[in-house]
Design brief:
Blueprint: E1 2-7, E2 44-47, E3 58-64, H1 73-81, E4 87-91, E5 95-96, E6 104-105, H2 110-130, E7 133-143, H3 145-156, E8 163-167, H4 181-184, E9 188-194, H5 202-215, E10 218-226, H6 243-258
Parallel strand pairs: 3-4, 3-7, 7-8, 8-9, 9-10
Antiparallel strand pairs: 1-10, 2-4, 5-6
């Protein structure tokens, strides 16, 4: 089982959009494509919710996959996050792994982050054109390096993003991460980590708390760890994407969507379950 140790810190194709601009809603609605992609050049994966209603403006979750992985992470993530609440889309990272041409990596320097941002905006604009998306409820989420990239994009383009979820992703260290820090103070971010993770170490969690505090950022910190008194049904893997993290992410996102305060702590304890990823 998992229990939550809460670190509450309420501290306060297209070209890249201006950090001061906002998305305009699409001028007309079109029938959604019942397939796994939209028509755009960026390789990606699409998730359309069950019982999709074209008359309802759905929140959009842009998923940034982990290192040495692919956009196919989206399938397992959305199944665990919610199959009805969101439209999901995942761009592929721009760097191909040298040992496996079906897996990809993100660059973490400024150029790499800019490339990732371009791919995110390509996906956002395609989704808002082709599906019923609420342009005021666009979220970024990611795992590992994808979580770091999601923070970088969200902090730089805070006016375009309703919230960010980083799961085992360290705080971005590139020089431009806080270039828009005054507007970034209005961005809500959930920063979750599994105790003992090497993707985002305990020390990096502490460092992120310090940076958010000193910068006045609106971060909510969450550390998940196994309960010492409970025998785990599966071996504890601190570098896995645990279902408990996605459960907390769903509560965080729905709190923003519904404009209500929802605790990130689980309503009841449940078995820890790692999310398995497939690859094309």
């Amino acid at each position: 089982m998992s229990r939550f140790s809460m670190l509450q810190e309420s501290m306060q194709s297209p070209s890249l959009p201006s950090s001061n601009s906002t998305f305009a809603p699409p001028s007309s609605r079109v029938k959604p494509l019942q397939q796994s992609t939209l028509s755009l050049r960026t390789p990606h994966r699409l998730f359309v919710p069950e019982k999709y209603e074209p008359s309802y403006d759905y929140p959009l979750v842009v998923w940034l996959h982990s290192q040495d992985s692919s956009e196919y992470e989206l399938d397992g993530v959305m199944s665990a996050l919610s199959v009805r609440n969101y439209i999901g889309i995942a761009p592929r990272a721009n760097l191909e792994c040298v040992y496996n041409d079906c897996r990809f990596q993100w660059g973490l320097n400024d150029q790499g982050c800019d490339t990732a941002a371009q791919r995110v905006w390509d996906c956002v604009q395609a989704a808002t054109r082709g599906l019923s998306v609420n342009p005021q409820k666009i979220f970024l989420a990611g795992f590992g390096t994808g979580g770091t990239i999601a923070q970088w994009i969200g902090l730089k383009y805070a006016r375009q993003i309703a919230g960010v979820v980083s799961l085992s992703g360290a705080f971005p260290t590139s020089s431009c991460a806080l270039s828009n820090w005054k507007k970034a103070r209005q961005l809500k971010v959930m920063f979750a980590q599994l105790q003992g993770s090497t993707l985002c170490t305990d020390e990096e969690l502490v460092q992120a708390v310090r940076i958010a505090h000193h910068s006045g950022l609106d971060y909510q910190f969450l550390q998940c760890r196994p309960d010492d008194d409970i025998e785990l049904s599966t071996p504890y893997d601190p570098d896995s994407l645990d279902r408990s993290m996605l459960d907390a992410a769903n509560r965080f996102l729905m709190g923003i969507v519904t404009e209500t305060q929802i605790s990130l702590a689980p309503e009841s304890t449940c078995d820890s379950e790692r999310i398995e990823f497939g690859f094309n």
